[in-house]
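Subject: Sanity check before I submit

Could someone independently write out the structure tokens for this chain? I want to compare against mine line by line before I put it in a report. The sequence has 144 residues.
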Amino acid sequence: MKRKEFLSFSEEDTANIAKKFCNNLKVGDAVLFHGEMGAGKTTFTKTIAEYYNCDDIAVSPTFSLVNEYFGDAKIFHFDLYRISDEEDLYSIGFYDYIREEAIFVIEWSENIPSLSDEFSRVFTISITKIDEASRKIIIEGMEE
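---
Independent answer below. Compare away.
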């Protein structure tokens, strides 16, 4: 699995990194995010939704647990912050969603370590705050 590291010094930098990353994505893929609150996971997701010409602007699904975006590809954006086990995944209908032809973007994926087993192709993106504006972004699985 290829691992690429990037430094971002602004939201614009993060969006540009996300645009490059989108060249790797296809329907059926899962993007598993790791990173603290405010690190830039939703900014990254917003760029993915824009790349696929989705009608809605991506926002964090913290309270709804999943947001659906429709464009050139269907995108399901999950926030698993409040999810702690497989039973919780069943209760939110997660396993019904993953039967769909879509791209799956999952924040707080580390709460369910076995999650990557559910998808044939997985990208892991870790975003670490360096300071208020700067981020270290590590993408595993990126080809370009």
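---
OP: Matches mine. For the report I'm noting this point. The longest strand covers residues 122-129.
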